[in-house]
Amino acid sequence: NVWNLIETLYKDQTLEKEELVFLLEHRDEETASCLGELARKEAQKIYGNKVFPRGLIEFTNYCKNNCYYCGIQASNRNISRYRLSQEQILSACQNGYDLGYRSFVLQGGEDPYFSDERMVPVVEAIHESFPDCAITLSLGERSLESYQKLHAAGGRRYLLRHEAISPRLYGKLHPEKMSLRHRIQCLYDLRTAGFQVGTGFMVGAPFQTLENLADDLLFIQKLHPQMTGIGPFVPHHDTRFRDFAAGTAELTIFLISILRLMDHHLLLPSTTALGTIDPSGREKGILAGANVVMPNLSPTDVRKDYALYDNKICTGEEAAECIGCLSQRVESIGYQLEFSQGNYRP
Ligand code: 5AD
Ligand code: FES
After folding, report:
1. Domain spans of the chain?
2. What stretches of 224-318 show up as alpha helix (H) in DSSP?
3. Ligand nearest to the CA of 204
4. pLDDT at 89
C-alpha cells in the first residue's frame, strides 16, 4: 500500500515505475503531508532552513521554436519582442548585486541573434564585473562547442528542462522538428562541457499521464542533475493549449517531495509558476522540500513581455519589492533567504 511505498522511497531513495504510479494515483492529503515532512527534513539536514535566491534576468523573448505550450513561441504575433543590451543586462546584475544577490540566471528564448560571438562577451562581462557571483545560463539547445565556449566564459550552471522523457508526450507538446533525442544529448553535452546541470518538466501538461510523470522522475534519477525545476503547466491565451486546465499545486508539491526523497542534495526551486496558480504555492513548495527561489531581476518595462504563461506573478513589482515580499514569505514559515552563490552540496 501507499504507506509501505513511502517507507521504501524514504529508505531506498527510489521506487519501481509501477510503484511510483501507484503512489501518485493513491496520494491524498495525509500521504502528501507525510512525504512533505520527510522531504523537508532531508532538505534541512543538508541546506538548513535556508532558501537560495537566484536573480532571473530574462534577456530576450525572441525564440525560433514553437513549443505548443509557450507564450513566447515564434509564431505568436501578439507580443512585443525585446532583447536587452549588454549594458542593460549588466545593470540588472548590478541592481541585483546591490540587493544582495550573488547568483544570477540569464534566461532567454532560443534566439539566434545571441550567437556565441554575441553571447560569450556578455557572460565574460558578468563574470569579470561580479567575480563573486555564480552565473547560470538558460539558453536552450546549442552545440557542445557552444556550451564549451560559454563555460570558458564563466558560465557554471545551465538549466535545460527535458520537458517530457516520453517520446509520445514530447511529440504532443512540441512541433515535429524539435527532437527529444537532441534535447537529451544537450544535457549530456552540458555536463561534458563542465556545467552543473539543471533539468525538469511541467506538471499537468496537456496529455500528460501519471505514468509519464513516473518516467520523468526516473529519468531525472538516472541523469542525476544538480538542479531540477518543476512547475505547473499554466495555459497561455495565444497558444493552442489555451483551453487546457492548469496543472495543480497539489500534484506539483507532491512531486517536489518525491524528488527531494530521491535525491537529498538536489537544488529544487519553488517556482514562479507554482506561486502563480496558488498564492502560497512557493511557501508550500519550500515546506515540501524545495530550497531555491528565482525572483525576477529583469527591467520592469519588459517583464510583461516575457509571458510564457498567463497571470505570471511579479511582472509589476520592482526587484527590491520581490525581495521584501519573498523574505517575508520565507520567514513566515521559519526559513531565511541566503544571499550566497547557493552552491550544490554533494
Ligand atoms: N506553463 C508553465 N511552464 C511553462 N514553461 C513554458 N511554457 C509554460 C507554460 N505555459 C516552462 C518550460 C520551460 C521553462 C522555462 O518554462 O518548462 O522549460
Ligand atoms: Fe515578487 Fe512577491 S515575489 S511580489
Report:
1. 47-336
2. 249-262, 272-277, 281-287, 300-303
3. 1
4. 98
Say how far apart CA 27 and CA 254 lie, in whole Å.
Answer: 8
Q: Specify the pLDDT at position 320.
A: 94
Among residues 147, 165, 143, which one has the least CA distance to residue 156?
147
State the Cα–Cα distance between residues 186 and 191, nearest whole angstrom.
9
Q: What's the 185 CA to ligand 2 centre distance in angstroms? A: 35
Residue 156 near residue 136, CB atoms below 8 Å: yes
Distance from residue 45's CA to the centre of ligand 1 (Å): 30
pLDDT band at 100 (very low <50, low <70, confident <90, very high): very high
Nearby residues of 92 by Cβ (< 8 Å), 6 or more positions away: 55, 57, 84, 297, 298, 299
Ligand 1 in contact with 312 (CB < 6 A)? no
Q: Does ligand 1 lie within 6 Å of residue 202's CB atom?
A: yes
Cα angle 135, 140, 141 (rounded to 5 degrees) comes to 120
CA of 289 to the centre of ligand 1 (A): 21
Q: Compute the distance between CA of residue 229 and CA of residue 159 in angstroms, rounded to an integer.
A: 8
Architecture per CATH, 47-336: Alpha-Beta Barrel (3.20)
Q: Pick from 280, 303, 311, 326 the residue to mutate for probing ligand 2's pocket: most ligand atoms within 8 Å of its CB.
A: 326
Over range 299-308, report the average pLDDT.
Answer: 95
CA distance 40 to 21: 22
Q: Distance between CA atoms of 251 and 278, rounded to whole angstroms?
A: 12
ipTM confidence score: 0.97
Cell readout for 322 is 520581490
Task: Please tell me what DSSP assigns to residue 109.
Answer: -
Q: Probe ligand 1: pick from 309, 310, 312, 313, max atoms within 8 Å of CB?
A: 309
In angstroms, rounded to a whole number, what is the distance separating the alpha carbons of residues 45 and 102? 23
Q: Which of 70, 188, 57, 204 is nearest to 133 (CA)?
A: 57
The predicted pLDDT at position 261 comes to 98
Residue holding cell 501578439? 78
